[in-house]
Amino acid sequence: MRSLLGSLINRAPVPYTGSKQNWYGGPGRKYGATGQMDAMGASATLFSIVNRTSTSVAAETWHLHRRAAGSVCEFEQPDGEPCGTKNVAHVPRHPAQVVLGRPNAFYTTAETFESGQQHVDLTGEGWLVMPRIGGMPAELWVARPDRMVVVTDPRDFLVGYIYCGPDGHEVPLKRQDVLLNRMPSPLDPYRGLGPVQTIMQQVAGTSMSAEWNTNFFRNGARPGGIVKLSRKMNDAEFEQLVERFNYDHKGPANAGKTAFLEDGEWQDVKPLNMRDMQFVETANLNRDTVLLAFGISKFAVGVVDDINRATADAAKAWFGETLTLPRLNRWRGLLNNDFLPQFPGWDPNPDSFGHVWFVHSNPVPADRVQALAEKTASVQQFVALIGAGVKSADAAELCNLPPLTMEPRPEPRPDGQIDKSSVNEPPSGEREEAA
After folding, report:
1. How many helices (H) and strands (E) does the chain have?
2. Residue 333: which of 351, 352, 359 has the closest Cα?
3. Is it the case that residue 160 has pLDDT exceeding 80?
4. What pLDDT digit, counting tens, does each position of 12-23 carry?
């Protein structure tokens, strides 16, 4: 029997849902999760954005930290630079790191993060299902958001999940067997809200414009007029007329030909042309709307109207800081709050030396000019402190430099030669060994 305290933990103080179970984003909904994922293949702009954001997230590496006073993490990041975080030590081996390093037999770590981030960017939700061995997570599998159903309760808030397979088979899942990375929805505390949900009309318009454009060239080679027949034709005559018309006027090769038909009256028409449809203006408007929804610049998707090396470097840093970093932080929160605690020996106390947590590499590229200027300033400050009589170890720490030891300068003799006796030399025993 549960205690009174146990019955109150993790229970909703107010009802967040009704007693009737709702269905979220089922397959086949035009603008539901299925339609949002399908939109990636319908818009070149959307594909380019999601491809860049998901691959940038997948390109970063993950490692574990634990507290260690005086230590510096030497884990090598993708750019070749060490992590450099102070007062922590790198944990090279941990069960959670093993699972993350090989999610399953078919997906690599990068593919898992890329696929999951695609779902987050398209639907606002990224789902991972965790099979277990001996009660401990053994694998990570990406699940489609449109196949996940949240089982809710007015008092317990969240009971579990149901995965709906392609053939309609339903698989119940426990709360601890599912990880959810989401962009929170302001209306639904259980599901996510992605940018694609705000631009589905624009994506649909772009798709239909492209289809109209294709059909314009496929079927638009017409004579620019209509022939009104003076009598009613039987089926055989009508089919012959249609066949002759299609033979002479269907397809781009027959564009502009004049139609000659027997026993008919000519009537001029003005068909819509490409200029009337304003495809370029419509395409640019839809593209800009999609870019606005994701908060991404034109340069990030390959539009380089006005660009140089300086602006390109700034754009890369901006992309890493404003787009990649927030996405990585969401995954970091999922790994540290929901994934790591499910492994034996996890210490929940963040101040404990046994507490471990996941960190990701830095997605913001280093500004080489700024880094050189900062290093030069640190060296100048170090020299000034040494000149003021500060010990070299203390001066290096104040200037964020590695431990440095200053050797005394040799003093010149009156004849201009260097007095080697003023330089620190090893003891005589060490000199003999060196000889």
Report:
1. 14, 15
2. 359
3. yes
4. 888 888 776 655
Encode pLDDT of 70-108 as tens digits: 899 989 888 788 888 989 999 999 999 999 999 999 999
Looking only at Cα atoms, what is the longest distance across the chain?
126
At residue 126, does pLDDT exceed 90?
Answer: yes
With H, G, I as helix, E, B as strand and everything else as coil, classify residue 145.
Answer: helix
pLDDT level of residue 340 (50, 70, 90 thresholds): very high
- Encoded tokens for 285: 């408007």
Phi-psi region of 262 (alpha: psi -120 to 50; beta: other; left: phi over 0): beta
Distance of alpha carbon 133 from the chain centroid:
30
**Is the CB of residue 346 less than 8 Å from the CB of residue 329?**
no
* SS3 (DSSP) at 363: coil
| Both tokens assigned to 228 | 């009104």
Please check whether residue 406 is in contact with residue 423, taking contact to mean a CB–CB distance below 8 angstroms: no
Per the DSSP assignment, residues forming a β-bridge with 173 are 161
Find the angle CA(176)-CA(179)-CA(184) to the nearest 5 degrees: 125
Q: Which of these ranges, 20-34, 97-111, 112-126, 172-186, has the smallest mean pLDDT? A: 20-34
Going by C-alpha positions, the residue among 25, 22, 24 that lies closest to residue 153 is 22
Q: Is residue 127 classed as helix, strand or coil in its secondary structure? A: strand
- Rounded to an integer, the average pLDDT of 280-301 is 71
Measure the CA–CA gap between 192 and 198, rounded to whole angstroms: 13
Per-state percent for the chain, helix, strand, coil, to nearest 5: 45, 15, 40
Dist CA 357 CA 270 (whole Å): 69
The DSSP string of 382-404 is HHHHHHTT--HHHHHHHTT----
